[in-house]
Specification:
CATH superfamily of the largest domain: NADH Oxidase
Strand content: 15-25%
Bound molecules: flavin mononucleotide
Largest sheet: 5 strands, mixed
Number of helices: 11
Number of strands: 11
Strand order of the largest sheet: 3-4-2-1-11
Structural class: alpha+beta
CATH architecture of the largest domain: 3-Layer(aba) Sandwich
Helix content: 40-55%
Radius of gyration: 20 Å
């Protein structure tokens, strides 16, 4: 596999079973970094100590235009934390997690401390294997319905992590949500700052970067995909994007909103864990997901989405779910690039 995709080839057989806890933790990070993140910014850093690993927000990678409060950044880190938990469980390690363990260090989002060995349940195994199989799939999905029992299962999984999932298969609701997505696309693309930020993270030569959005993955099939960032920066293609997203949204069998009664950093971290729980369980059932967060990134439309759907809280993530074809993985930085301090001594 090419270098920028190498992290996806992590092999569970390489887990240092009889090694130091710190080496085991470092190995588990290979799974954490496969989490999704907005614009594939991978806004996380880790510090490994003798018996624990700390997860830090890397705010240098913040998206100031679409995500001025680091809401999506924190959600992305929550997804990485969930992968870390699932990997620890798979390798039979018990753990404790504290969120925001130090009120003086707002960038320290979580600490995962290893405990004694535990048991691996069969469910963990399926979900663990989904970590390397999951991708954001931006292709059109088949119209086949998603079983209601599966949706109910996803709802209870996200609730266990502290976020609510509301899923909609009814056509009128999907059409109304699709209209909001299209409106958001037009508003975002009309904003030069939005286009500049997107252009900074779009990669025409994906193989020479370990982060960002490979232009071919974006499903942009027109001339934009050849010219890339320069044209994204210059031209408002909001109309085209809106038409494409409306088509994708209305033709997906299910649209789903993850939402929370509150809207603050701890909630976002839980939302990220809920999101990843949903995405991994979905993948283990052969279901694909993709994001349509644009209306949630614009305060007026976020409020409109909540009231339209009657949600008693704040929409955090808008997804479409369905069955479809495979899609390639996106680049990742290697764990060694993400360690804030190298291990000094073993205890
Ligand atoms: C909080 C969050 C928000 C995202 N928002 C969008 C979005 O609005 N549109 C989109 O196409 N992808 C969105 N993504 C998907 C990322 O672009 C994707 O995770 C990243 O490019 C890495 O690719 P992968 O998920 O296939 O590993 C989002 C991901 C996260 C975690």
């Amino acid at each position: 596999m090419k270098d920028h995709l190498q992290p996806w080839s992590v092999n569970a057989d390489d887990f240092p079973e009889s090694g130091y806890a710190s080496d085991q933790l470092e190995f588990l990070l290979n799974y954490a970094i496969l989490a999704p993140s907005s614009h594939n910014t991978q806004p996380w850093l880790f510090r490994i100590n003798a018996m624990d690993v700390e997860l830090f927000a890397d705010r240098r990678r913040a998206l100031r235009v679409i995500d001025p409060c680091d809401r999506e950044l924190t959600i992305s880190c929550g997804a990485a934390l969930y992968n870390l938990r699932i990997a620890a469980e798979y390798f039979g390690r018990k753990y404790d997690v504290s969120l925001f363990p130090n009120p003086n260090l707002p960038d320290l989002l979580a600490q995962l401390r290893l405990g004694l060995s535990g048991e691996t349940s069969s469910d963990d195994v399926l979900v663990f294997h989904a970590i390397t199989q999951r991708r954001t799939n931006r292709q059109a999905f088949r119209p086949d319905p998603v079983p209601t029992e599966l949706l109910a299962e996803l709802e209870s999984l996200t609730q266990a992590e502290g976020a609510w999932l509301s899923a909609y298969a009814v056509e009128e609701v999907r059409n109304a949500v699709a209209d909001l997505v299209a409106q958001a696309d037009r508003m975002q693309w009309a904003d030069k700052a939005f286009r500049e930020e997107l252009a900074r993270w779009v990669r025409t030569k994906a193989e020479s970067h370990r982060d960002g959005l490979p232009v071919h993955d974006l499903g942009i099939k027109d001339w934009m995909s050849f010219a890339g960032p320069a044209l994204i920066r210059t031209f408002d293609r909001g109309g085209g994007q809106a038409a494409r997203d409306r088509e994708l949204a209305t033709h997906s069998p299910v649209l789903a909103v993850l939402w929370t009664p509150e809207d603050n950093a701890p909630t976002w971290l839980n939302t990220g864990q809920a999101l990843q729980s949903l995405l991994l369980h979905a993948r283990s059932e052969n279901l694909w997901a993709s994001f349509l967060n644009q209306p949630i990134e614009i305060p007026e439309l976020r409020a409109q989405l909540a009231s339209m759907l009657g949600l008693a809280g704040y929409p955090q993530i808008l997804l479409r779910l369905g069955y479809g074809e495979e899609t390639p993985p996106s680049p990742r930085r290697a764990v060694r690039e993400l360690l804030v301090m190298h291990k000094t001594a073993h205890h």
